[in-house]
Design goal:
single chain, 402 residues, mainly alpha, 15 helices, 73% helix
């Protein structure tokens, strides 16, 4: 473990402890988690105003494409950045990126959000160019740390980040060419889902084992083995097939098999034993949407609307897992107890409900408008509760260890 440059001899880094000003930029999770929650609210409410009031949004880009892009590559990329900039130092033992370099990276992300929102004034090429910088820069920074730390097994995560970088550029290119960016959307979402299966396979059984051990129980989750590797590999094949040919029989069969594998995998982690801990059980619920999502992909081969599948994966798998990780990391790395408050538990409950309700808009067309408004309200409430509760944690010094 490297020492902080201002630490005294024998004093090691305390994760999340600010050593410089401002505190918000002392660790990657602080600015990116808070900004992601705020942008989740702003972007979805702008989308609702477009749907309900005709508010013009990024007309040179297309409001529907702006909405899809900002969910996948704006909101979600910020949370991924906050997670990786916090997790990688723990994986490698190297110092975290903080201070001015972190400010610069955050400014690049902000510039991308502003550029796409102002695309009608600054032009399409400058806007997409500004947005396309963030993920490759994040990729370089994370790859450098993983390689320097010789954590070769973590290159799988770096590969997922590289896929997202390519997907984002492909998204822009398809839109600029006047082509519906369906493949880029599926590509980007597939990368996130694959990252959930990789990273989730590390943190869920580990956190569950620790919790059971503290509870004096010995019925631990199954350790990572060949079954997990097969499940991840099958998921990758199914997601590649879905990205390129979403409605084929081959995709349906691959997805159905992967759904079964991931359902068994989740069962091996014994999530039902954690029902008394909302902050832990929500991780298992989020992963439950992985087999549900693959089952939906399989159903897409026989007629289920692709937009419903996208929202099952985007909200149930990606966003719910991200909210769960955000709350846990925000509390743990700022010295708070890893215990969900009532506010946090309510936010989980709301987002789970949104993940279930939003795909119904395509299945129940007469009620689509009402469902969309309810889902947007729930989304705003879930991330609003996170922002209100956790902003003070993220902007203040870590609580001293006792």
């Amino acid at each position: 473990m490297q020492q902080h440059p201002h630490a005294t001899s024998g004093e090691h880094i305390v994760r999340g402890l600010s050593r410089s000003r401002p505190v918000l930029f002392s660790y990657g999770f602080r600015p990116f988690f808070l900004a992601a929650a705020v942008w989740a609210i702003i972007s979805i409410d702008l989308w609702v105003l477009f749907l309900s009031r005709g508010l013009p949004i990024a007309e040179a880009y297309g409001a529907i494409y702006w909405h899809a892009h900002e969910m996948l590559f704006g909101f979600a990329s910020a949370i991924l950045a906050g997670f990786l900039l916090t997790a990688i130092p723990n994986w490698t033992g190297r110092l975290p990126i903080s201070g001015r370099p972190l400010m610069a990276l955050f400014a690049i992300w902000l510039a991308g959000r502003a550029a796409l929102l102002l695309i009608d004034w600054i032009g399409a090429i400058p806007a997409v160019s500004a947005d396309s910088i963030f993920l490759p820069v994040l990729l370089v920074l994370c790859a450098r740390e993983v390689i320097a730390g010789r954590k070769w097994k973590d290159l799988k995560v770096i590969a997922g980040l590289a896929a997202l970088s390519v997907a984002n550029i492909c998204f822009h290119l398809q839109v600029l060419k006047g082509v519906t960016p369906d493949i880029a959307i599926r590509f980007g979402l597939a990368a996130y889902v694959l990252l959930v299966t990789i990273i989730g396979g590390r943190i869920l059984p580990s956190f569950t084992r620790n919790w059971l051990n503290r509870s004096g129980r010995m019925d631990f989750p199954a350790p990572h083995d060949r079954f997990d590797a097969v499940s991840i590999a099958a998921g990758m094949l199914a997601l590649v097939s879905w990205t390129l040919a979403p409605t084929t029989v081959a995709t349906g069969l691959l997805a159905a098999g992967t759904a079964i594998l991931n359902a068994v995998r989740l069962g091996r982690w014994r999530g039902w034993t954690t029902w008394r801990d909302p902050m832990l059980v929500v991780l298992h619920i989020a992963y439950l949407f992985v087999p549900i999502g693959f089952a939906a992909i399989a159903a897409g081969a026989v007629g289920l609307e692709q937009i419903a599948i996208l929202h099952i994966l985007a909200i149930g798998v990606v966003s719910l897992m991200m909210l769960a990780v955000m709350t846990r990391a925000s509390r743990g790395h700022t010295g708070r107890k890893l215990k969900a408050s009532l506010t946090t538990t309510v936010s989980y409950t709301i987002l789970v409900t949104v993940a279930v309700v939003r795909p119904l808009a395509e299945l129940m067309p007469p009620y689509a408008d009402v469902i969309l408004m309810l889902a947007a309200a729930g989304w705003t409430a879930a991330f609003g509760l996170f922002a209100v509760e956790h902003a003070p944690f993220l902007c203040k010094e870590r609580k001293p260890l006792r």
